[in-house]
Write a structure and sequence with these properties.
This protein is mainly beta. The relative contact order is 0.19.
Length: 57
């Protein structure tokens, strides 16, 4: 099992971004908060996607 460190998270979380970052600037594994749609988004190395949440029980 690989441990996730704060440094690893800082490298993959891009913060608050208006829209999607340019694909050529991404490696895959990055996540960000898209301020234009108020959603968390990510890039897996080949496509963009929304990260969904469900309500707490």
């Amino acid at each position: 099992m690989t441990e996730t460190t704060n440094a690893m998270l800082r490298q993959t979380y891009l913060g608050r971004v208006d829209g999607d970052p340019p694909e050529e600037d991404l490696d895959g594994g990055e996540v960000w908060f898209d301020t234009s749609t108020n959603t968390y988004r990510g890039y897996d190395g080949s496509s963009f996607g929304e990260i969904g949440f469900t309500a707490d029980a």
